[in-house]
Write a structure and sequence with these properties.
The protein is an alpha+beta fold. It has four helices and eight strands. Strands 1, 2, 3, 4, 5, 6, 7 and 8 form an eight-stranded antiparallel sheet that branches. A hairpin with a 3-residue loop joins strand 3 and strand 4. The protein is globular. 19% of the residues are buried.
């Protein structure tokens, strides 16, 4: 299993608020319509359900992830559905005071060693973008 950890993002909210927003995705679809056009363009193709998120992955196609694990208030994990290889998107949360939370996204994927040099950079880029999506949507 390979792990690609994205850039940590600090948000000006308490950890319980952030955890509740990440573990229940039902409100995100409506929020997409309220974003400015430039922000909507950056996250184009993303859709949300109560416990699922789907998006277009360049070079891969449409991916859907379902909530797989929730450990209040520090960890949320989503498992890829119908993926040819096991793939998880994870978010780890760490409180930095009463009103600041650090989010660290990661991608855990079962990837043969010979493919890591080919797709590893793209997976790292995706892990970094994953944090950007939540920092854009969680206000």
């Amino acid at each position: 299993m390979a792990k690609y950890t994205g850039k940590s993002v600090a948000l000006p909210r308490d950890i319980d608020f952030i955890y509740s927003r990440i573990s229940d995705l039902s409100g995100y679809e409506a929020m997409l319509d309220e974003l400015p056009a430039d922000q909507r363009e950056r996250i184009h193709g993303i859709t949300f359900g109560t416990d699922t998120v789907s998006f277009d992955a360049p070079g891969v196609g449409r991916l859907s992830f379902k909530l797989a694990e929730a450990v209040p208030p520090t960890h949320v994990s989503f498992r890829a559905e119908q993926s040819p290889i096991p793939l998880n998107l994870c978010v780890d949360l760490k409180a930095e005071g009463d009103d600041k939370t650090q989010i660290t996204p990661s991608i855990d994927i079962e990837l043969p060693a010979m493919l890591r040099s080919f797709v590893g950079p793209k997976l790292q880029e995706a892990a970094d973008k994953f944090g950007e999506v939540f920092s854009t949507l969680i206000k």
